[in-house]
Amino acid sequence: MASTENVDTGPRKFGTFAGVFVPNVLTILGVIMFLRTGWVVGQAGLTNALIILGIANLITFLTTLSLSAIATNTKVGGGGAYYLISRSLGLEVGGSIGVPLFLAQAISAAFYVIGFTESILAFFPGADPRFIAAGVLTVLFFITWVGSDIAIKAQNLILILLGLALLSFFAGWEPVNNLTDNLAPAHQPEIGFWIIFAIFFPAVTGIMSGASMSGDLKDPSRSIPRGTLAAVVITTLIYAAQMFWLAKHADRETLLTNNLVMNELSVFSPLIYVGLWAATISSALASLLAAPRTLQALSRDGVLPRFLGRRNGKKSEPRIALIFSFLLAQICIFLGDLNLIAPIISMFFLVTYGMVNLVAGMERWVFNPSYRPSFKVPWILSLLGALGCVFVMFVINALATVIAIALVGGLYAFLTTRRYQTAWGDTRSGFWFSLTRFSLLKFTHSHQHLRNWRPIILVLSGNPKVRTRLVQFAHWMESKRGFLFLAQILTGNWESNLQRKPAALESMNEFIEENHLAAEAQVVLSQTFDEGVSTLLQASGVGPLKPNTVIVGWSEDVIKQGLFRRTIRRILELKRNLVLFIEAEKEPHELNKTIDVWWRAKLNGTLMLTLAHLMHSNPHWKNHTVRLLLIIKNKSGIEEATANITQHLKDARISGSAKVIVSEESPLEVIKKESSHAEVTFIGINLQTLTDDENPLKEYEDFAYSFKGNVFLTKSWQDLELH
After folding, report:
1. How far, in whole angstroms, is CA 559 from its chain's centroid?
2. Could you tell me which residues come within 8 angstroms of residue 229 by beta carbon, excluding any fewer than 6 positions away?
3. Can you give the CATH number for the domain in which 358 is found?
4. What number of CA atoms fall less than 13 Å from residue 682's CA on the CB side?
5. Can you tell me the distance from the alpha carbon of 181 to that of 184, in angstroms, rounded to the nearest whole number?
6. Residue 489: which domain range?
7. Residues 75-95 pLDDT 10s
8. Which of 556, 582, 608 is the last residue of a domain?
9. Pair 140, 110: CB distance under 8 Å
10. From CA 365, how far away is CA 436, in angstroms rounded?
11. Do 498 and 619 reside in the same domain of the chain?
12. HSE (CB half, 13 Å, CA atoms) of 601?
């Protein structure tokens, strides 16, 4: 599935103050500040309450730093945190985070509306709070339906009302007799430190409100860092002052039992209600603005159905996405209360925050030349932010954490099956480059011992779609322990082949992806085939990660026999292990389920036995028997010879059978009689002396066609250790 860059078609209207700072402040200074901070101080005590505030804001502060770094490194489109994550780690990761982020934003709208409803129940005794909340949410839905500019402009007035409410609260002066009475914890046994933290944490999750409006900001790369950092610093100071003021002016019982304790301490109590209503309504509005825009970005990238991202109306608002956000929030209103919803929101936001930190840390760590943020953050701070999010998730609710991670993992697994092709680069390639560079340098300087030999196989496949059996056997021999290079050599006219090369390479890469091969495609241009083979053997790979084995199909074209022999000679001159593949004449069900390895010399034998073992480790070959066979001329040597090859199998820790054959005939005749119907036969070949006019394969030409199964003629330059 293809995806193009997420291009905004709507107007960008808002600056730092109105577009980022105000939404963030109003969301942070919301329902928790008015209805739960007193309870937090009462349960945890002032000391632990400040610690909770410090931990929560440390996580959001580190996340803000990471968010600022990413936002100043790229042109920011619509979708906020989802946009930034998807453009750094790809649509698969971005989508797996974006969906939970949308859910958190939509649920937050219900959370703030429930908080508003809880504060007005005293005025409507006997009313069902769920229906009141549903009605309030419906009103907010119609406000956002009209347009985001009305909601944003209304927030300036709400900010003034909130400021007046805070002034009224701090102007109250009724200190308790002894401040030390409220310093220590006094929570119930079933309510621990981290439960209190989980209930308080949504208070600081408003840092994404401004970023979620990224598609409507005039200059998001400038506004997001400035507005978010300013909001975090100012609201942290306000919360700290509020906690101190509550501990100083209210007794423990009042803090624990009176959710509207701020109202009692205020010099003009109606302003507290006004501030609470203003804060909760504005927070709900901010969530109703953010959730549809995240959903819209997801749909426009093809992660979710595209009709969800349509813009409607004169102001191009995401109204279809708004309807879905509204319906989800309504469902939550009828399902839960504040204490039930708060930990759920915490979990979703923590997943998002952790990923934002991880993205920033990875971008900095991999040192992509394109990563040049104007707001620089050390990668260790971003990593600490990510680890802090994971830690807090587990201490809040381990089961919910596992479920959240499983949800993200499931979404990621699903999205990877859709094979997105994006129009932007992401940091994943930079991460793998850095890791590869580090590992390759370590590998290059490590001791290369034959005990650690791995099959790095160059397959002279040409177009692999017409030599699938050759490639399949190479894949079985690699067996996830090595690496394959699939090679095609274009010979003849340079100009015409130069035009053919991109299509040939693309076709090979498609074949590799479709067949899930651990392989790299290589297409080279050369005047002759054997010169192309020489180029491949000398240029393929990096450092010690070069082909050590070449697999080539047996040439049946008599005209090309001379060229084929020259190619074999080049491989041998460069001292690469040679495996000549002769494809079976019969279908597998007509052949014996054996993998025969003919032991003539240890040099070839250890490679053949290793390749047979690697094949046998694949599920396709599990029901086959590996047979190690040896030819001797005298019956008197059977016992000793059997013991020797049995020991070879034992040393190699390979499950198989050993067989000794006594015969005076030539070895090739014996091999034909014994293994002509084996599904696979490995035969060592002796190619030591090479001259210009020599045909090194002459004695095997007629012999090769006498087998009904697959044959591998093998020449090794290395005595692999079996122990």
Report:
1. 51
2. 64, 65, 68
3. 1.20.1740.10
4. 32
5. 7
6. 452-582
7. 777 777 788 778 777 788 888
8. 582
9. no
10. 14
11. no
12. 12
